[in-house]
Amino acid sequence: MGFFGMDFEPYFEKAKAYLPAALSSPVTAGASAIAAKNVVPLTNDNWKTVLTPSPSATTASGPEPWMILITGGNKTCFGKCGDVERAWNESAAIFAADPTAPNLASIDCESQAVLCSTWLTGPAAIYYVLLPVPAADQSKPATTIYTVTLNTTTVTAKEIVEIHTKKTYEQAPVYEGLFHPFDGTFAKLGINVAVGYILWGFGLLPSWTFMILISFVSRSIMNRRIGRQDATMAQGRPLGGAPAANQ
Predict the structure, then answer these.
(1) Distance CA 134, CA 141 (A)
(2) What is the chain's alpha carbon radius of gyration, rounded to the nearest angstrom?
(3) Order of strands across the sheet with 125-131?
(4) Nearest to residue 110, comparing CAs of 78, 66, 67, 68?
(5) Residue 155: which of 168, 145, 146 has the closest Cα?
(6) DSSP symbols for 38-99
(7) Count of CB atoms situated within 10 Å of the CB of 125
(8) Partners of 144 in the β-ladder
(9) 44: Cβ–Cβ under 8 A, 6 or more apart, which residues?
(10) What is the enclosing helix (H) or strand (E) of 149?
(11) Residue among 96, 83, 125, 128 nearest 8 (CA)
(12) pLDDT by residue, tens only, the chain of 247 residues
C-alpha cells in the first residue's frame, strides 16, 4: 500500500504509457528520458535557487518534500552507481504519474565535486528534504533533511518509491551539524560554498603532500622550542624560567 492507503503499482502502469510501445521496461532509455524531464540536476550555481518553496506554497500546506539523489561516477562512486541510477530512473517514471510525488533532483558528485564538498556528502544516497515555507513574518523554520543510504547492489525502484509513499525516510538519520546546507553554521555565516571549495581543493592534493606539510610543521615547532631553550640557557636560567641561584 502507498501514500494514503493507495498502491503505487497503478501509477507504474500509467508511467509505462509515457514510454515508446517497443519498450517493455522503465529501466530503458524511455525511463531515462522521463527522469531527465522530471529530475532537476543541481549544480554549485543553481541549488540555492532551485531548492526554494514554490510560489503557490503556503504554511498551511506544510513543508514541500524533495527527494535528491546523490550519485557519482568512477572516481566518486567507484563505478558502482549504475544500478542506483537505473532504479532512480524507474522510480522517476513511477512518480511522473503520482499526484502526491515529491519534487525530484539529483547531484552528480563526479561533475559537481564542489557542491558535494559544500554539503559534505557523497554517493550513494537520497536526501529527503522537507523544505519549509517562510512564515508571514518572513521567518524561516528549520529545514529537515533525512539521509537515506542506498545499497548499490540491491536497491530497487520500489524501495526508492517507498521512501516517499511509505515514509521510510523517517527511519533514516536526520542531517545535522556544521555542513547542513540550509541551517548549518557555515550556511548561516554565508561561507559554506567557500568551505566547499577549500575541501575540494584539499581533495585534489596527493596524500604525500599532507605528509610533507605535517613534517614541515613538526620541524618548525621543534626548531622554535630548541631556540627558546638555547636562549634560556644562555641567560643562565634553568628551563623552568626561574632565575639561577647565586653562587
Answers:
(1) 7
(2) 26
(3) 39-41, 103-108, 64-71, 125-131, 144-149
(4) 78
(5) 168
(6) HEEEP-TTTHHHHSS--TT--GGG-PEEEEEEEE--TTTSTT--HHHHHHHHHHHHHHTT-T
(7) 17
(8) 130
(9) 112, 114, 115, 118, 193, 196
(10) strand 144-149
(11) 96
(12) 444 445 555 555 555 454 444 444 544 566 777 777 889 999 999 999 999 988 777 777 789 999 999 999 999 999 999 999 999 999 999 999 888 999 999 999 999 999 999 999 999 999 999 999 887 776 778 999 999 999 999 999 999 999 999 999 999 999 999 999 999 999 999 999 999 999 988 777 666 555 666 776 777 777 666 666 666 666 665 555 555 555 4
User: Cell for 11?
Assistant: 501509477
**Please, what is the angle between helix 82-95 and helix 29-38, to 10°?**
70
Q: What whole-number distance in Å separates Cα of residue 181 and Cα of residue 117?
A: 11
Grid cell of 45 as nine digits: 550555481
**What pTM does this model have?**
0.73
Strand partners for 64: 131
